[in-house]
Amino acid sequence: MENFAELTCPPGQPDNRRRIEAIDVEGSAAAESEHYQMNLHTPPLLARLEESQEILILGAGGGFDVFAGLPLFHHLSAQKKSVHLGSLSFSDLSKTDGHRRQQNCIEVDHESVGPADYFPEKYLAQWFFQQGLRVPIHCFSPAGSAHLLSIYTELIKKLGIDTLILVDGGTDCLMRGDEPSLGTPAEDIASIVAADQLELPTKLLVSLGFGVDTFHGVCHAYVLEAMADLTRNGTYLGGLSLLPQMPEFQCLKNAVEFVHERMPERKSIVMSSVVAATEGRFGHVEGIVDDPEARLFINPLMSMYHGFELAGVAQRCLYRDYMVKTYSRWDVTRAIGNFLYVADSREWMSLPF
Questions:
Q1: Which of 130, 243, 284, 342 falls 20 to 30 Å from 94 in CA-CA distance?
Q2: Which 3 state secondary structure label does DSSP give 200?
Q3: 8-state DSSP, 265
């Protein structure tokens, strides 16, 4: 709060004290569920994608988040669907010569020049090229929701996209705003609010890595509460476990290891945790974090996908309306600060397990 102490809620800003009980997305969820059946034969998340043909998988929170979508990329590509990758990038895109699809979106491929110390998207494209595939990564810098909306709209138009999947490494994307800690919400919520405004037949949010956000202070009892809320209104699409024998997991593991070899000082804690969990590691695993005082709790829940109708997550967020007209990263910081300045934060809830 100290960074936001000087801020006040601007006149005309929405009342943050609205609660999830007042949010009704049941109608839209019911309408979507008419297009597929929920049963044990096909996981609802995958059933939701059966009619999709041109799919864009976007990393929601920056950095390695796009890697969380690689198992889905592998699975959907094997079904002969056209799948594209995009990343809200923490790389210095001003130093790359990638093809500029539009003013603020750069197509990075295996030949792109860029910063050597941190450029996971380039190295991911190189890994794909070594597999005999040319898979460019559409990269753009962090921004506010309004700015991201313009990037998404243009990219979707040029690629002919009918389905958008936002992917998050971790689960802080499910925080609605009044939890004791929001994790690192800026990029996630900016992406979610932007995507929620798109006119597309299918818009999903998928998270991978339950528990990794403990590193950022997230209370996972409230993550489970979010899943319960979204189950009640029909926008939770269930869970799906990765297992070490799956080719979809091998795709993720091999890509992560390839990129880490080229960025040994900038490895992803989240993706390293997911890989370790899927391989059956448990408890604290050495080598994932550099801090000798940090203790991890690697466990099987980290290897699970959780899928959601994006509209349900966006409309559950108590500060969604604060984010709609943000353009820059500073706008996002200020919007979150304005909300937190007047928010009633709930107490920490320990899991009674």
A1: 130
A2: coil
A3: T
